[in-house]
Amino acid sequence: MSGHHTIAETEKAVQAKLGAVPLHREQMAAVSNIHRAATAIRQHLENSVLRTSDLTWTGFVVLWVVWIWGEMETRYVAEEAGISKGTLTGVAKTLQSRGLLERLGHPTDGRLAVLRLTPEGEELMADLFPKFNEEEVFVSDPLESSEAQSLAEMLRRMVTHLEANGEQRRLDLRGDTVLPPRRSGRRAKHG
Amino acid sequence: MSGHHTIAETEKAVQAKLGAVPLHREQMAAVSNIHRAATAIRQHLENSVLRTSDLTWTGFVVLWVVWIWGEMETRYVAEEAGISKGTLTGVAKTLQSRGLLERLGHPTDGRLAVLRLTPEGEELMADLFPKFNEEEVFVSDPLESSEAQSLAEMLRRMVTHLEANGEQRRLDLRGDTVLPPRRSGRRAKHG
DNA sequence: CAGACATAGTTCGGAACCGCAAGTATTGTG
DNA sequence: CACAATACTTGCGGTTCCGAACTATGTCTG
């Protein structure tokens, strides 16, 4: 099933469309395949293991992060999960309402909030993670063990590079142009 | 900036947490790094090139797909873009309202709708894509040319594998258990 | 040709999601 | 103690997102 066009066909169409334009095909293929793979894998995991527990992807990722690290301050949870703090507030609320997560104040710094799994949350993750990992094995089936390692290592380098240099790069790109205000978002109380 | 924990630290914490649990670490690292990389790259691209045109990631992907393939039936656009057809309806509406995309009926089959870029959309993509590609080069900076190729090729294999075998796998996993209804989503008009 | 079935797209409910601004507390500092 | 900085929440406006229900259209079959 799947689709009308294979990846190979898409890449050929790009070549045809952009034949005249000078562009960096290898990097384009690498980046776009990262997103294709991420989407396909996410969909598979959502519709296999996650669905049976009625967890969303983001909900699972948040639980996973907190599970791995134990108690964790919310700001770091958001960062590790790759979502904004505002979103985390809502997701955490959902997970709390299901009794999987709890929120604690920080003992010494009253500004901080700390997340921790409830016993139910721990139990769920202990049950769910092996199944999740089985599907990670399934999706990695076409890779040799050494290839999986090499893949992970290359991606790690890309992430590290972005963490180290991404912000500066974006600043350089913007230069002195001021970003237009976003189409949506809360407005200043009063001009 | 960036984070509290590096990927290496995270993998170490996983090892500590899951030391006793038998699991497949290589595949886990590969899959989770795919998602980390996809998120980081997406955020970089959104906050550099896309932001200046006030395009969302999904909006850009849809434009890109239609741009590459020319006129395209909506069902295929959704599939190529990795979103559901319901989502595409909304996204296409947004892009239409900005004058970047147009919707045409199919001449012989009244059920079909076809998407095509407007001249403004063509112009935008011709301007935007080279910039986008430059950032793809930037994020791929830590990869040798041969590595980028190998990365793309491995991911392509994973996607192909999922397209070919994912659905069957999910069916096998479900077995005869019936999925619980989703927490959200439209309900039957009447029990 | 009518009724059954299939296919394509839209609508809708509920949740996620972002970025920003503003609000609330708390902590650190001169 | 005033004041800045930090951490989180809240709320806004908009978008995205899924999947099931629904609508409209086409196709197959008796």
From TrEMBL, chains A, B:
Q: Which Pfam families match?
A: MarR
- Which SUPFAM superfamilies does the record match to this protein? Winged helix' DNA-binding domain
Q: Which residues form the signal peptide?
A: none
Q: What PROSITE patterns does this protein's entry cite?
A: HTH_MARR_2
Query: What Gene3D superfamilies has UniProt attached to this entry?
Result: Winged helix-like DNA-binding domain superfamily/Winged helix DNA-binding domain
> Per its UniProt entry, which superkingdom is the organism in?
Bacteria
The segment(s) forming the HTH marR-type domain are 27-160
Question: What's the protein name?
Answer: HTH marR-type domain-containing protein
Q: Which organism is it from?
A: Lentzea cavernae
